[in-house]
Amino acid sequence: MRDQERTLNQDVERCINVLQDFLDTGSAKAISVFSNKTSENEDWLEEIRVKYRIKDNDELQAIKMLKQKRLDQLEALESKVDYYEKLCDELEEFQDEMEVKAKLEQNRRSRFDSMTRK
């Protein structure tokens, strides 16, 4: 019975050792892959840094201010365009009214002239 127990314990220990070796190998592979990926990502990050230089905060702030200035100028131009479009519409309306008044005046004169000729 003791021999069976000892054999069983030895078998269990061998299983544990095999399992531990398997886990150690798997962990080592995972750590190696992770390390390689990390290294690749660091290299890629450095390439990106060189390729796309990040502007400092002062320069970014200057760009934002310039953008806002241009937006304000654009808004001012749009309001001027709106004003001139309305003015043009009013002038066209005024011109139409003047044409109507001129025709009415012409009709009055022609009637007046025809009345004075009689």
Structural features:
about 120 residues, mainly alpha, about 95% helix, rod-shaped
Low-confidence stretches: none
Helical content (DSSP H or I, runs of 4+): over 70%
The fraction of residues assigned to DSSP E strands is under 5%
Tally of separate domains: 2
DSSP strand tally: 0
Number of helices: 2
| Main pleated sheet | none
Order of helices and strands: HH
Spatial shape: rod-shaped
Nearest-integer average pLDDT: 91
Distance between the termini: 154 Å
Class inferred from helices and paired strands: mainly alpha
Rg for CA atoms: 46 Å
What does this structure look like?
Pfam families: BLI1. Belongs to the BLI1 family. It contains two helices and no strands. The model has no long low-confidence stretch (mean pLDDT 91). The chain has helices at residues 2-51, 57-117. The chain has two domains: 1-54; 70-118. The protein is mostly helical and 118 residues long. The longest helix is centred in the last third of the chain and has 61 residues, at 57-117.
